[in-house]
Design a protein that fits this description.
mainly alpha, Troponin_I, elongated, 178 residues, 69% helix
Amino acid sequence: MSEKKMSSSRKHHLKSLMLAIAKGLLEEEEREQEEERTRYMAENCPHLSMPRSMQELQELCREINHKIDVIDEERYDLEMKVNKSNKEIDDLKIKVQDLMGKFKKPVLRKVRMSADAMLKALLGSKHTVNLDLRANLKQVKKEVKEEDKELRDVGDWRKNIEDKSGMDGRKKMFEAEA
């Protein structure tokens, strides 16, 4: 409260002076823009003279088309520069966020949910299939091979050796081969 307050008439007077100065600056800026516009138009868009013959008209059309092509090329180039700059800006923003390290991982809650309920939550009403994993398992039937049967039928190896021992066993072996 040590500073003295300004009277309302003084405030009003200063406000009106500021507005007058701002108005003058705006008028001057508007006049400069108009001069710039007229200078640009005189430079880039010369006064159009209507051609009298068909040949002159065709030449004028070719000239205008050429100018349009040049302007389109410039517009395309500028557009690509802007897109590239925007992409670089986005990449730099991401890098800055990564360097700041202010990503907070949310605390995840444990949710008890069946596979059917989870698919229904993810897919919405599209999910109609019941997920019964045991029903989808393949049934495998075990086939018994003939070689395995023969090995089982042979039985105890000691009996085979006893049968083949001696002359009788050798005689049986030769008879079996013949």
